[in-house]
Design a protein that fits this description.
Elements lengths: L1 H58 L4 H29 L7 E3 L1 H18 L3 E6 L6 E3 L1 H19 L7 E8 L3 E7 L30 H11 L3 E7 L2 E9 L3
Parallel strand pairs: 2-4
Antiparallel strand pairs: 1-3, 4-5, 5-7, 6-7
Helix pairs in contact: 1-2, 1-3, 3-4, 4-5
The structure holds adenosine-5'-diphosphate and magnesium ion.
Length: 249
């Protein structure tokens, strides 16, 4: 009997890992627009630096100091571009099982590094309020990042067709035992009859092809595996999602 139970447990773990991976790939798809934009930035700088240098060379006015500065700039920008690509790659990989101490502010900052540009292009203002303390949490940074990306995507979707200021406020703060991360939006809030179901797998109010209904259920599972909680509530004008995780002492 024990053996059967163990097998069932292993199957459950396997299935849940597959769902997490599938949903991560969906998030990755979401992000590709954003990443294309982030990559364009360094490429533009590189093209300009190269173009200016060539012009000076052909005019015969390129001194070594000038060229050196331009080449330095090009080097710098390729480092930036590789960092963006490395991050994407890491995000696509399957997470290992071990929990490790991670910095919640870095996780939020990394998520914004991947999606910030896309949100700004959608006219959404992003405000971050990080308290000074900096306790660590035990978790998987990439999975944790996926949770933040899911919350940002949902906030964006909720605000897409709305009038008025579009804004997401991300806060990280702590008390003696826990770290809290909240995401507030101005998307009008969660429908009253949906509140009790939003964490169910495949529950979505979005049209076919837009929503999978997996974002919140996967996020809930990830936070739960890290011994934390994910809670939704409506606030003035929008929704608030709160992640609470035990801090590493
Ligand atoms: N920030 C939000 N504001 C309003 N409703 C939300 C928000 N986040 C989630 N929801 C509701 O919860 C549902 C489930 O979300 P999710 O699990 O991420 O799936 P999906 O985004 O694919 O619909 C959404 O369809 C939406 O109805
Ligand atoms: Mg979603």
């Amino acid at each position: 009997l024990n053996k059967v139970r163990l097998e069932q447990e292993n199957e459950r773990k396997e299935a849940s890992a597959q769902i997490i991976q599938a949903s991560k790939l969906a998030t990755l798809g979401e992000m590709s627009t954003s990443v294309a934009h982030e990559l364009n930035q360094p490429l533009n700088v590189i093209r300009m630096a190269a173009g200016n240098s060539r012009r000076r060379i052909s005019k015969g006015t390129a001194d070594l100091e000038y060229l050196n500065a331009k080449l330095e700039r090009i080097e710098e920008q390729t480092v930036r571009a590789s960092a963006i690509i490395d991050h994407m790659r890491m995000f696509g990989r399957e997470a290992n099982e071990e929990l490790e101490p991670i910095n919640p502010r870095a996780v939020v900052t990394n998520a914004l590094g991947l999606m910030g540009e896309q949100l700004r292009l959608a006219g959404i203002k992003i405000v971050t309020e990080f308290s000074e303390d900096c306790l660590l949490i035990l978790g998987h940074s990439i999975q944790m990042e996926q949770v933040i990306l899911n919350l940002l995507t949902n906030a964006r979707d909720a605000m897409t067709e709305r009038e008025g200021e579009k804004k997401i406020i991300l806060r990280v703060f702590e008390d003696d035992k826990s770290v809290h991360i909240t995401a507030d939006d101005a998307g009008g809030g969660i429908l009253e009859n949906a509140l009790s179901r939003i964490f169910d797998p495949f529950y979505t109010t979005k049209e076919m092809g837009k929503g999978t209904g997996l974002g919140l259920s996967v996020s809930y599972g990830i936070i739960n595996d890290m011994n934390g909680t994910l809670v939704a509530e409506n606030i003035d004008g929008g929704a608030r999602f709160t992640i609470t995780l035990p801090s590493v002492s």
